[in-house]
């Protein structure tokens, strides 16, 4: 196998700078990988240009990018069928096979290679801080040969790629940190539901949308019955566990369009966009029955875990503001408690 020089005698800097600019403009990891193979394929006539990653045990390779499609797919390859990749992984340097039919390494696959009209293979390692990230592989038709400038161009792109990949990794890490911080600002840690502050902002958005498009908007306030007794009997740690389990059951019961938040203590609130009072009441009953039928371990042996729920809807005769909606749901919840708990009550405006 012939080594490919990493230091060409002359370089078309303008073209190289354009390639580098496009590579570093790509922010996402998969986007960078595709841009690398696309740059190669746009200047060199290849049967296929791809990037493969090899697992740490060097038993399986994965095609992570090809020039034919921007879709990112991890296509597994059996390395026993690709000895040239194995050789490149161990060599840690550029590998060029100018004639696949005359190379001993590929002799067992001669018939297959003739069938696909493959002429030559060029492999560049993508090295970052002495670590091989993957390999850039060019497969060339038997009807042509690689020109020296094509060999040089592919080497340049292979040298640029690891830095662009690192840049994309850094961007995605920062983006993930930003998303994590945003999530922390809106999530209640104990129950993994939205917190009261984020609920208030979301309710205002949904309320304004309901007014603008003349839509119904419902709200359910719900409370775990006798939660103080649960804490006093089983301890606060067990009480917290029950609170989390109940929240999980509720999340699994509501619709994807609904919004669940912890309102405070053992109280939760649900926003139901485009839902009238009858629809919200039905949903409240589904939630109540789901929580009631869930097994909470030893807590169920003495007393069943139940909910009381209050339902209210906008627009209504006495419900014209956000505060009206919350007060109405709270009033209905209070009524459910007075009526014996473990029930759903809909708000009825006084005459």
From TrEMBL:
Protein's recorded name: diguanylate cyclase
SMART domains: GAF, GGDEF
Residue ranges annotated for the GGDEF domain, each copy included: 215-349
Membrane-spanning segments: none
EC number: 2.7.7.65
InterPro entries: Diguanylate_Cyclase, GAF, GAF-like_dom_sf, GGDEF_dom, Nucleotide_cyclase, Rev_trsase/Diguanyl_cyclase
Reaction catalyzed: 2 GTP = 3',3'-c-di-GMP + 2 diphosphate
One function term, GO molecular function aspect: diguanylate cyclase activity
Recorded coiled-coil stretches: none
Listed CDD domains: GGDEF
GO cellular component terms, A-Z: plasma membrane
Any GO BP: cell adhesion involved in single-species biofilm formation
């Amino acid at each position: 196998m012939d080594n490919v020089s990493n230091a060409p005698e002359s370089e078309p800097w303008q073209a190289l700078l354009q390639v580098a600019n496009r590579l570093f403009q790509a922010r996402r990891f998969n986007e960078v990988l595709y841009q690398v193979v696309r740059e190669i394929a746009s200047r060199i006539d290849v049967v296929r240009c791809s990037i493969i990653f090899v697992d740490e045990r060097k038993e399986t390779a994965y095609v992570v990018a090809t020039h034919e499609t921007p879709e990112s797919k991890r296509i597994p390859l059996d390395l026993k069928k690709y000895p040239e990749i194995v050789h490149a992984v161990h060599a840690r340097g550029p590998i060029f096979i100018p004639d696949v039919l005359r190379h001993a390494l590929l002799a067992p696959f001669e018939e297959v290679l003739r069938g696909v009209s493959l002429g030559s293979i060029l492999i560049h390692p993508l090295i970052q801080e002495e670590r091989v990230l993957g390999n850039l592989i060019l497969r060339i038709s038997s009807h042509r040969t690689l020109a020296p400038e094509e060999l040089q161009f592919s080497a340049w792109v292979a040298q640029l790629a690891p830095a662009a990949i690192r840049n994309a990794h850094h961007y995605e890490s920062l983006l993930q940190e930003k998303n994590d911080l945003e999530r922390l600002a809106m999530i209640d840690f104990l129950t993994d539901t939205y917190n009261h502050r984020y609920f208030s902002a979301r309710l205002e958005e949904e309320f304004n949308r309901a007014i603008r498009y003349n839509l119904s908007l419902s709200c359910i306030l719900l409370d775990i019955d006798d939660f103080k007794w649960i804490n006093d009997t089983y301890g606060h740690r067990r009480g917290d566990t029950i609170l989390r389990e109940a929240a999980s059951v509720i999340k699994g019961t509501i619709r994807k369009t609904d919004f669940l938040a912890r309102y405070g203590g053992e109280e939760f609130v649900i926003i139901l966009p485009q839902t009238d009072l009858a629809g919200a009441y039905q949903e409240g009953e589904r939630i109540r029955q789901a929580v009631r039928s869930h097994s909470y371990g030893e807590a169920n042996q003495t007393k069943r875990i139940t909910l009381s729920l209050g339902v209210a809807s906008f627009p209504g005769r006495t419900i014209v503001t956000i505060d009206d909606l919350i007060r109405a749901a709270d009033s209905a919840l209070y009524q459910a408690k007075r009526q014996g708990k473990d029930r759903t009550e809909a708000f009825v405006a006084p005459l």
